[in-house]
């Protein structure tokens, strides 16, 4: 009798024990620790201000000490994974800009690079801005906890590095704590230039900026949804691309937009987890974020942020006025929300780092009753999936419509490629449909790249300067 009970208990205990050991298989979202998020938040808020114009040299207070701590923390994680993280302070001195940089200012990002085992030049970036501010954007001395904006994204990035560095991936992951965001997106611009100089191919940038509150000042709450902002027309578009898109389409198929669709799909697979509301604009009205310097350079990027903003607790001097408390403080955070948003990031990074790059896809459907799709062979892909949607549909369909061929394009071997390209005829009239292809490695498929001009996950070719 006793024996039997203990056997059942042992069986029940097995999966939990496997989770606790942080084994490099299964869902990394389950490894997110609210306790660690809270501990890191306590540490970074303890620097009192992380304003970009605050002290670079004070060992305890200001951005210098905060960045030094983050670099040391990345180094500690690296020691725990046999030196798997290349930790760097990626930065430079920015000259006065007549706006929010009054004097020569060192902009230093804390960056950890986990090199891919197969395709180290292919990179996914998870980032948050580490700097904080109060009401006056030039105030580098007042206490500016920046708990939600963007301490929340920052502690998630640290947790991502901690969890995912215990696993190995074919492609590279960069964990980045950026500074200078509130002064004009400087740190993101510096990192975007740096990855380009390194010759890296950017698969995706997940810019997390404010992922730690669920209610607005009016009491309206949405505890289970994050917004993902993606650009429509590409920021790096050219006259030539605009002309091509007029002839062939592509207004709603930028790489960022397809990354957004991919994230929404991923979230749906975890119905109890954080869901995605896709917002089809680059950022909130009149505002910006660190995804923008990447988009400017033609690199696929989205902003992940809270569903409901609380303006009383961002960019505010700490004070109480007419009984209303202002300031971006730790006590205003929703830890369940932040933990859940962090889980979504872990799952997304894991899947993106295991998936191949999206292919470059083109469609020929002019004056014909079917569509010839052709796409580039992608390193690390063992199969490809064709996706279709009506021109006025928001999302890619699951599989091809009734009357066309099978649901998933399985098992196409890369050896079938001719001159590096794979071709297939889809029995649908191309004028009435949009097409895209994702590249898969087992169950992990890339975001869809659309078969339209400007749909590829690479910068648009710029005209030669005269
Ligand atoms: Zn922010």
Summarize the structure.
This protein has 466 residues and is α+β, with helices and mostly antiparallel strands.
According to DSSP, the number of beta strands is 17
User: What does the radius of gyration come to?
Assistant: 23 Å
Q: Which ligands accompany this protein?
A: zinc ion
Using the alpha-carbon principal axes, give the shape: globular
Order of helices and strands: HHHEEEHEHEEHHEHEEEHEEEEEEE
Question: Can you characterise this structure?
Answer:
- There is one protein chain.
- This protein is α+β, with helices and mostly antiparallel strands.
- The protein folds into 2 domains: 22-354, Aminopeptidase (3-Layer(aba) Sandwich), CATH 3.40.630.10; 361-450, Immunoglobulin-like (Sandwich), CATH 2.60.40.10.
- 27% of the residues lie in helices and 23% in strands.
- The protein has 9 helices and 17 strands.
- The protein has helices spanning 2-20, 34-45, 63-79, 147-164, 186-197, 239-248, 255-268, 292-296, 335-354, and strands spanning 85-94, 105-114, 119-129, 171-178, 201-208, 225-229, 275-279, 301-306, 319-321, 324-326, 361-364, 371-376, 383-390, 421-426, 433-441, 444-445, 449-450.
- The strands form 4 sheets. Strands 1-2-4-3-5-8-6-7 form an 8-stranded mixed sheet, sandwiched between helices. Strands 13, 15, 16 and 17 form a 4-stranded antiparallel sheet that branches. A 3-stranded antiparallel sheet has the order 11-12-14, with no helix packed on it.
- Bound molecules: zinc ion.
- Zinc ion binds next to helix 4.
């Amino acid at each position: 009798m006793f024996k039997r009970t203990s056997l059942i208990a042992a069986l029940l205990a097995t999966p939990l024990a496997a989770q606790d050991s942080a084994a490099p298989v299964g869902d990394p979202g389950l490894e997110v620790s609210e306790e660690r998020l809270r501990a890191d938040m306590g540490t970074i808020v303890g620097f009192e201000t992380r304003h970009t114009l605050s002290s670079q040299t004070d060992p305890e207070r200001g951005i210098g000490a905060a960045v030094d701590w983050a670099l040391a923390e990345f180094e500690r994680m690296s020691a725990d994974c046999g030196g798997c993280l290349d930790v760097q302070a990626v930065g430079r001195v920015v000259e006065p800009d007549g706006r929010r940089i009054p004097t020569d200012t060192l902009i230093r990002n804390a960056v950890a690079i986990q090199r891919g085992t197969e395709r180290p030049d292919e990179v996914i970036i998870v980032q948050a801005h580490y700097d904080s501010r109060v009401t006056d954007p030039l105030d580098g001395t007042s206490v500016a906890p920046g708990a939600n904006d963007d301490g929340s994204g920052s502690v998630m990035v640290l947790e991502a590095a901690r969890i995912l560095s215990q696993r190995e991936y074919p492609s590279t992951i960069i964990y980045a704590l950026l500074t200078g965001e509130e002064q004009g997106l400087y740190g993101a611009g510096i990192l975007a230039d740096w990855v380009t100089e390194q010759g890296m191919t950017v698969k995706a940038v997940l810019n997390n900026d404010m992922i730690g509150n669920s209610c607005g000042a009016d009491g309206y709450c949405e505890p289970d949804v994050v917004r993902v902002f993606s650009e429509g027309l590409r920021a790096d578009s050219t006259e030539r691309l605009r002309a091509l898109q007029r002839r062939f389409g592509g207004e709603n198929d930028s790489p960022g937009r397809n990354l957004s669709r991919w994230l929404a799909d991923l979230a749906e697979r975890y119905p109890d987890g954080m869901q995605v509301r896709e917002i089809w604009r680059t950022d909130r009205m009149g505002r910006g974020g660190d995804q923008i310097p990447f988009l400017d350079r033609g690199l696929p990027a989205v902003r992940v942020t809270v569903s409901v903003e609380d303006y009383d607790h961002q960019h505010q001097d700490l004070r109480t006025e007419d009984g209303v408390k202002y300031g971006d403080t730790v006590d205003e955070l929703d830890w369940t929300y932040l933990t859940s948003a962090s889980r979504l990031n872990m799952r997304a990074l894991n899947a993106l780092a295991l998936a191949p790059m999206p292919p470059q896809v083109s469609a020929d459907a002019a004056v014909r009753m079917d569509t010839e799709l052709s796409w580039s062979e992608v390193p690390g892909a063992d199969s490809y999936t064709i996706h279709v949607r009506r021109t006025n549909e928001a999302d890619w369909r699951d599989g091809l419509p009734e009357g066309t061929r099978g649901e998933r394009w399985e098992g196409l071997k890369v050896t079938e490629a001719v001159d590096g390209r794979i071709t297939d005829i889809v029995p649908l009239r191309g004028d009435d449909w949009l097409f895209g292809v994702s590249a898969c490695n087992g169950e992990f498929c890339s975001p869809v790249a659309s078969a339209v001009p400007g749909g590829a996950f690479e910068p648009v070719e710029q005209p030669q300067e005269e």
